[in-house]
């Protein structure tokens, strides 16, 4: 996990006491699944194991809150179903057209486009290039 994400999480845990047990369960579930770019549905299933009274509406509201707090971001997907991931250093995604899985590829260096954007006075908060195709499993 990159340093930025850890810092954000610490900041978040400071205010965690204000969170209801339901929201704590949603956060816990997200952290367990964060490597998989989980959907709200997957987070809901996992959150119910921690707190059986969690409802789907609470999951959606909590995720929106975490997005607003800058802890998590929406990851790109094929069909528009929201998937979530930690807000961390910019990286690229590969979305498989068959199984719909999202894979991550980290960038070796800052792309030329980023430098050009910064030179013109913009501050980049998040960036992602999406590649579409077939993953090794689906190509077989
Ligand atoms: Zn695939
Ligand atoms: Zn990602």
UniProtKB/TrEMBL annotation:
Family the entry assigns:
Belongs to the Fur family.
Coding gene? perR_2
Q: Which cofactor does it need?
A: Zn(2+)
Query: Which keywords does this chain's UniProt record carry?
Result: DNA-binding, Metal-binding, Repressor, Transcription, Transcription regulation, Zinc
- What species is this protein from? Neomoorella glycerini
* Co-factor remark: Binds 1 zinc ion per subunit.
> What InterPro entries does the database record attribute to this sequence?
FUR, Fur_C, WH-like_DNA-bd_sf, WH_DNA-bd_sf
Q: Under the GO molecular function aspect, what terms does this record hold?
A: DNA-binding transcription factor activity; transcription cis-regulatory region binding; zinc ion binding
The name this protein carries in UniProt is: Transcriptional regulator PerR
**Pfam families in the record:** FUR
Query: Which annotated residues bind Zn(2+)?
Result: 96, 99, 135, 138
Q: Is Manganese tagged as a keyword? A: no
The processes (GO biological process) annotated in the record are: negative regulation of DNA-templated transcription; regulation of secondary metabolite biosynthetic process
């Amino acid at each position: 996990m990159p340093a930025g994400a850890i810092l954000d999480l610490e900041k978040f845990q400071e205010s965690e006491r204000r969170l209801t047990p339901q929201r704590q369960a949603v956060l816990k579930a997200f952290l367990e699944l964060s490597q998989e770019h989980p959907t709200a549905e997957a987070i809901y299933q996992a959150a119910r194991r921690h707190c059986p009274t969690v409802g789907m509406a609470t999951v959606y509201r909590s995720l929106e809150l975490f997005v607003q707090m800058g802890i998590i971001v929406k990851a790109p997907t094929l069909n528009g179903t929201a998937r979530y991931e930690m807000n961390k250093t910019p990286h690229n995604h590969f979305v498989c057209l068959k199984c719909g899985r999202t894979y991550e590829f980290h960038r070796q260096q800052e792309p030329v486009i980023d430098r050009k954007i910064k030179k013109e006075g913009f501050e980049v908060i998040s960036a992602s290039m999406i590649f579409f195709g077939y993953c090794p499993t689906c190509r077989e």
